[in-house]
C-alpha cells in the first residue's frame, strides 16, 4: 500500500518538483555558472517564492500528512518507511526527467 500511494503522489509531484528544478536551474545554479538561465522562463523572485511555497510546500505538507496516516496503518519502522516512501515519491520525476518520451503515452506533448 505505501508504494502504490507514493507512486501516485509521485506522479502528481512531477509538477511541483519541476518548479523546484526550474527555480534551481535559473537562479542559484545559474549564478554559480553550472546552468544557463532560461530567457523565456518565469522572471522575478517574488513569483518564484509564491510558486515554491504554495505549490511545492503544499504538496510536501499533503504528502507528509498522508504518509503519517499510511505509516500508522502499516506499522512499519519509521526510518525504513520514510526512506522507502521518499525514494518512491521521487521515482516518477526521475523517470520523466531521464526519459522525456515517457510522457507521450500519457497524452502530453
Short account of what is shown:
Keywords: Membrane, Transmembrane, Transmembrane helix. By secondary structure, the protein is mainly α. 73% of the residues lie in helices and 0% in strands.
Outline type:
globular
Mean pLDDT: 87
How large a portion of the residues is in β-strands, by DSSP E?
A: under 5%
Structural class: mainly alpha
Would you write up a description of this structure?
The chain is mainly alpha-helical. Helix 1 runs antiparallel to helix 3 (45-74) and helix 1 (2-26) packs across helix 4 (78-98). The mean pLDDT is 87. It has helices spanning 2-26, 28-31, 45-74, 78-98. It has one domain (2-36, 43-106). It is globular and about 50 Å long. The protein starts with a helix and ends in an 11-residue tail after the last helix. The protein is built from 4 helices and no strands. The chain crosses the membrane at residues 7-27, 47-69, 81-99. Keywords: Membrane, Transmembrane, Transmembrane helix.
Amino acid at each position: 500500500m505505501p508504494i502504490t500511494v507514493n507512486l501516485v503522489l509521485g506522479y502528481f509531484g512531477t509538477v511541483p518538483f519541476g518548479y523546484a528544478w526550474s527555480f534551481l536551474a535559473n537562479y542559484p545554479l545559474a549564478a554559480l555558472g553550472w546552468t544557463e538561465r532560461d530567457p523565456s522562463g518565469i522572471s522575478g523572485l517574488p513569483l518564484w517564492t509564491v510558486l515554491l511555497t504554495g505549490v511545492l510546500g503544499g504538496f510536501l505538507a499533503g504528502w507528509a500528512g498522508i504518509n503519517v496516516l499510511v505509516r500508522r496503518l502499516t506499522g512499519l519502522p519509521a526510518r525504513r518507511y520514510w526512506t522507502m516512501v521518499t525514494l518512491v515519491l521521487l521515482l516518477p520525476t526521475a523517470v520523466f526527467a531521464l526519459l522525456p518520451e515517457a510522457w507521450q503515452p500519457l497524452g502530453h506533448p
